[in-house]
Amino acid sequence: MKHNMPQLPYAQNELAPRMSAETLSYHYGKHLQTYVDNLNKLVVGTPYEDMPLGDIVRKAEGPVFNNAAQTWNHTFFFDSLSPAPVAMPGELERELVKHFGSVNAFKEKLLGTAATLFGSGWAWLVADKDGRLSVKAGSNAYNPLREGFCPLLAVDVWEHAYYIDYRNRRPDYLEALWELTDWQKVARRLEGTECNVYV
Ligand code: MN
Q: What is the pLDDT of residues 40-58, one digit of tens each?
């Protein structure tokens, strides 16, 4: 099974000034492309060769896991951004209030967790099988599917995600990312009783 680059739901210059075309040309055009290319090379002749991406993320270890998870995570991350502000749907807002106390408390938890994650990694909003929401974070290519959680929103805190636009100011990048988030997509992933992600 050949893994492909996802299409972006916006042009590469449409997220500026919060995320520049130069950042997207490197982050999407070079970093993600490299993960996809490496994954396609690494799975040849292995049990992962014909496995869907989500299953590889759940089962693989080492370089296959790293490149599969980075492919999954970035596909999900880039799909979660919008050039125009997207208001948070009421149903999602109610769930966030229920599990975090307020939308602002959720924002502080997610962005605070992302800001203080040491080194490269990812922070996530996830749902468990009973629909309870929480924030998870981990190093490198961390993906919460491996722990049975349903990913709702991904925050990339590798330096390649923000160094062109924000240099070392990770919190400024995180504020911009909050503004770029397509809350409609986050809400849609939460709909239904099963994990509603696409891979
Ligand atoms: Mn990245």
A: 999 999 999 999 999 999 9
